[in-house]
Design a protein that fits this description.
Layout (H helix, E strand, L loop, with lengths): L1 H12 L4 H8 L3 H13 L19 H11 L3 E5 L15 H14 L5 E4 L3 H9 L9 E4 L13 H11 L3 E3 L9 H8 L2 H11 L3 E5 L1 E2 L5 H4 L5 H9 L4 E3 L2 E3 L9 H5 L5 H6 L2 E6 L5 H9 L5 E5 H9 L1
Parallel strand pairs: 1-10, 2-3, 2-5, 3-4, 5-9, 9-10
Antiparallel strand pairs: 6-7, 7-8
Helix pairs in contact: 1-2, 1-3, 2-3, 4-15, 5-6, 6-7
Length: 315
């Protein structure tokens, strides 16, 4: 025990390597490693991670770790306070989570990866925060249709163009509306360009998306993709949120509705099967949808504000 204590002191307090500890104590390197491990196992070593007081409002390590454990996440990133209730869903409002998600994306994406995304203000905020030359990928592909008869701007062109430029990637557009009548959807899926794009999206290595609430405070309602009658039907069927225009219930399971047959987007099952999925969420309106997505294992990584994190952990 004396030797183990000495080895731990040299290693943890004096900053010596295990090889240097071995030379100092006259033992082999493997023995030095075992001595350090024995000291830790016997309670001779305490390791404490301390957040400086000046950074406590900016770093949320405890909440991140608890989110990871609670929902089986690969990584959770928690930022400051989120979008105010009733604030317009514009990209600037999501700047904080956008920067955090951009940093996470840069760490997780590989040069040979295909990056898929759904459109929305959160995703615009992410690509706006991307810095050139830091990371790259092979292809960027649109996961859901965006064409609309309204003047609503989805941000798809900006996301594709900026990702292609910053990540030095080839971009694949999905030239289709988000919703169409079922027969038209079948016809579009037989179109070689649309079918190849959806196939590429379904097999994307990393997917980036937000969630939409089943309410009037959603981009789908604002963009005239949904009306009040549709929303009432979705609520009656137990829908709590959507990803790429596909609705799910409180357990993250797809909701059987006509919209499922009308959606031109990657199915939720393909999102669930993707090994690297990043969900971005900010604002009280999206809390319930975020919880449903996490319960349904629709995201492996989460970027959210501290208010959302605390709400999730309180459920």
């Amino acid at each position: 025990m004396r030797l183990a204590l000495r080895a731990a002191t040299l290693y943890y307090l004096d900053g010596l390597t295990q090889a240097e500890v071995a030379a100092r104590l006259g033992v082999s390197r493997p023995t030095a490693g075992r001595l350090v491990a024995r000291a830790k196992a016997n309670g001779l070593v305490r390791i404490e991670v301390v957040v400086p007081p000046t950074l406590r409002d900016d770093l949320h390590a405890d909440e991140e770790r608890e989110l990871e454990e609670r929902f089986g996440l690969t990584e959770a990133v928690v930022t400051g306070h989120g979008v105010d209730v009733g604030a317009p869903g514009r990209p600037a409002a999501f700047a904080s989570v956008g920067r955090a998600a951009a940093a996470l994306l840069v760490r997780r994406i590989a040069p040979d990866d295909v990056l898929g995304f759904t459109w929305g203000p959160e995703q615009v905020a992410v690509v706006t925060a991307l810095a050139p030359g830091v990371a790259s990928c092979r292809t960027v592909v649109q996961l859901d249709g965006a064409m609309s008869t309204s003047v609503y701007q989805t941000g798809v062109e900006y996301i594709l163009d900026r990702c292609a430029d910053v990540l030095r990637a080839k971009s694949i557009r999905l030239p289709a509306p988000l919703y169409a009548d079922p027969s038209t959807v079948v016809s579009m899926r037989s179109d070689s360009l649309i079918s190849r794009t959806l196939e590429a999206g379904s097999r994307a290595d990393l997917m980036l998306f937000g969630v939409g609430a089943v309410s009037t405070s959603t981009t789908l309602f604002e963009g005239s993709y949904l009306d009040l009658t549709m929303l009432d039907e979705l609520v009656s069927l137990g829908a709590v949120g959507e990803i790429g225009g596909r609705f799910f219930d409180a357990q993250g399971e797809p909701v059987a509705t006509e919209l499922q047959q009308r959606a031109v987007s990657v199915p939720l099952e393909d999102i669930r099967d993707c090994a690297k999925t990043i969900l971005i969420s900010s604002g009280q309106a999206k809390h319930i949808a975020t919880l449903g997505a996490l319960r349904g294992r629709l995201a492996r990584m989460l970027v959210c504000d501290i208010d959302c994190a605390r709400w999730l952990l309180a459920q």
